[in-house]
Amino acid sequence: MKKVIISLLFTFIVTVASSQDSGVLSVDSLNQAFINWYNQSPQLDKIQGASVEQAYNELLKGKTPGKKIVVAVIDGGVDILHPDLAGKIWTNTDEIANNGIDDDNNGYTDDVHGWNFIGNEKGENIVYENMEYVRILKKLTPDFSNITSIDQVDPDDVQYYNLYLKCKQKYDEELSKYKSVSENIKNFEKRLETSKDVLKNYLKKDKFTLEDVEEIKSDRESVKLSKEFYLKLYKRGFSEEGLTAQKNYINKYLQYYLNLEFEPRLTINDNPYDINDINYGNNDVKGERPDHGTFVSGVIAANRGNGFGTDGISSNVEIMVLRVVPDGDERDKDVALAIRYAVDNGANIINMSFGKYYSIYNAMMESAIRYADDHNVLMVKSAGNESDNLDLIECFPTNKYLDGGKAKNWINVGATSNKSGKNFCGTFSNYGKNSVDVFAPGVNIVSLSPEKRYDMANGTSFSGPVVAGVAALVWSYFPELTASELKTMLLESVNKYDKLKVIVPNKQGKKNKSKFAELSITGGTINAYNAIKKASSAN
């Protein structure tokens, strides 16, 4: 059992360590097969991208876009000074920068490039947050902790009682898991230090190399076991940095995500459950964690043909930056206000590459989504990375209204890889025949990283921006379309894979197959060439 624990722990250490990579200064050092693959064509290049280059080369050559499209990136922040985003950041021309006055009277002072909904007027920002089920548990515990039977619950409160039980079970499971991993790490460290001490004593040196250990020849059992343990670890990619990263990762769960005593919202000092309490935030659109939002923005809008970096999908686009996502779960109120800000300040498309499985104030979000829906704004939402069937489980924010209706201008997006075949669907991607609209490139995506860098990553977080980028491209050349017409055009022009069977994403690692066409409403992937061709023929 100890060997199994150490093996699993080691795998986790290496995985977490690799996820800490902060990017590279040039895409030349990344796998060239994945540079801009999302722009390539299934038909011309035999790469399962969105046919963006084909659209530019064959359908848009010599044509001028009729409208600049503003895409609101609701995320954790964006490095707006990245050279590959030069000229692509939205500017509020009615606001005078940093004069401390709300010049345009929109309620947000000095909001030149967007707004940060997880900060205060002093410039202090929330970095870490609880998970949503932890916040819900804290809020509902006073009402339900002493309840022993559902019969004791007022009928109007049954839904909240059931939510309380669900969140408590989740919390208890997660807390137990991460405490156990933390204890395993401590035991692992003890064994590692013991082995290192044995090797130091044998080699008679405080610092030694892997080669030193390999050359050890000893019949002493303790030395042999220490040598075997040490070599096995390091030859499989173990590093001290990886162990530190793993400890920090677990510590974030115990200190922040799952900590019932942690109250980061005191930094803002608002009522997070009152949508009318809006006097908070600041204009820091980069923040402490701009990696994710910068990557998302690069997929949509990185400058095309500038001789370096990557090529975004839409050339005539600007990014409005709205920060709501901390390290932890976002708040419903912040998301709702960000959606309203985007609508009120001229965004045409809203990209939402975030989500969670719990929500106590979804009505706040629904009101904002209805507002966007009523104001001709297209909302693009990443489906999520939990390998779940969204026909069976709710993910928030959602296009489903409490009265049974749905938002009409909403696209939910799953992730695919660059090659068709059994592994075409991202192993992590959520899916749903009735819940996910379309798939798009989201595996091995190369895009922007803060501080003039680039990186490669996986996630529906990046397939969503592919769809947002294609939507912006089509809309910029066909500005007469409504958001609903644009959505219809995009979904009716997908690239189909009627006969392709793929491995269905699942947490257990099973290899069950299904027709790819059964994993979403359209059964296909977004295709810029087809969409523009369809738009052209309709005019």
Describe the structure.
This protein has 539 residues and is an alpha/beta fold. It folds into two domains: 354 residues, 3-Layer(aba) Sandwich (Rossmann fold), CATH 3.40.50; 125 residues. The protein has a seven-stranded parallel beta sheet, with helices on both faces. It has a two-stranded antiparallel ribbon with strand order 8-9. Helix 2 runs parallel beside helix 13 and helix 9 runs parallel beside helix 10. The N terminus is likely disordered.
Strand and helix map with partners:
Layout: H1 2-18, H2 52-59, E1 69-75, E2 114-116, H3 132-144, H4 158-203, H5 210-214, H6 221-235, H7 240-257, H8 291-301, E3 317-323, H9 332-344, E4 349-352, H10 362-374, E5 378-382, E6 410-416, E7 438-441, E8 445-449, E9 453-457, H11 460-477, H12 483-492, E10 495-496, E11 501-503, E12 513-515, E13 524-525, H13 528-537
Parallel strand pairs: 1-3, 1-4, 2-3, 4-5, 5-6, 6-7
Antiparallel strand pairs: 8-9, 10-13, 11-12
Characteristics:
539 residues; alpha/beta; Rossmann fold; 2 domains; seven-stranded parallel sheet; two-stranded antiparallel ribbon; disordered N terminus
Q: Which value, in Å, is the CA radius of gyration?
A: 25 Å
User: How is the CATH topology of the largest domain named?
Assistant: Rossmann fold
Which structural class is indicated by helix and strand composition? alpha/beta
**Beta-strand content bin:** 5-15%
Q: Please outline the major beta sheet.
A: 7 strands, parallel
**Poorly predicted parts:** 1-8, 10-21
Count of helical regions:
13
Count of all domains:
2
Helix content: 25-40%
From the coordinates shown, what is the CATH architecture of the largest domain?
A: 3-Layer(aba) Sandwich
Strand arrangement within the widest β-sheet reads 2-3-1-4-5-6-7
CATH superfamily placement of the largest domain: Peptidase S8/S53 domain
Average residue pLDDT: 94
How far do the termini sit from each other? Answer: 67 Å
Let me know the number of strands. Answer: 13
Overall body shape: globular
